[in-house]
Amino acid sequence: MTIEAASLQATSAAAEPGRARRRSTAASIGLHSALIVASLIAVFPVFWVLVVSFKPNAKAIEATPTLFNESSLDNYRDVLAGAKGAFLSWFGNSVLIAALTTVLGVLLAATTAYAASRFRFPGRRWLLLSFLVVQMFPFAVLIVPLYNILLSLGLQGSAFGLVLVYCSTAIPFCTYMLKGYFDGIPGDIDEAGRVDGLSPFGVFWRLVLPLAKPGLAVTAFYSFIVAWSEVAFASAFLSAGDRSKTLAVGLQVFVQQNRAEWGHLAAASVLVAVPAVIVFYLVQRFLVSGLSAGSVKG
Fold it and tell me: What is the full DSSP assignment across 85-111?
């Protein structure tokens, strides 16, 4: 009986800290209420853009707005049918530039990160330090030097020149992220691949990359978003023709100095957000593990 009593007493003592750490009902209600309010504040602007996208311009900014009165698909029809003449061209330009930036940026970042993770070569630390320093500069101060570089290469005003600019801004972050992920993959895998007769690139392509899917998903999503939603570089480095613009730049057509077409702008904004949402849905299951691995390794 003494042993049983001592065991019960020890179990009770071990459970007491758990009870002490348990939140009270009032604290739990307060926490969840604050989270709900914060979520509503974050979601409401997006929801209201969606509502405005179904309203005519005259009703979009009325003093007492309503949710569903006089709603229609006219704004979407006008935008997609070419009321502004070039929306589908903007969409095609954005898809092309974002796709090239994603593929080229992830490929260059992955090879660079793998080399920095697996090999020890002169200048390795300075290379990684230079990537970190580049991230410290505001992108706005890079417009003039990048413009001069593209002008000297004959790429000013071209989509490929803009892709190179986006890669130059995305690759430093992507390289740091992937290096941290590659550091977490055991080097024994590389040795086993070489024993089986694979070349160094074969080891990288056939063994390491399949294990780094979460990290690749994070860097691909980041590269895509950089190219899809950026405005300053696209405005400076693309030619002035209406059909050469990207979606983010083309949206400025709907809001000018003397007029503002809020319904059309909201509809176009919703259409612009759809591809980004699709890409996020495709990679979201990899994002948490990829971000956490890349942030703690290195």
Answer: S-HHHHHHHHHHHHHHHHHHHHHHHHH
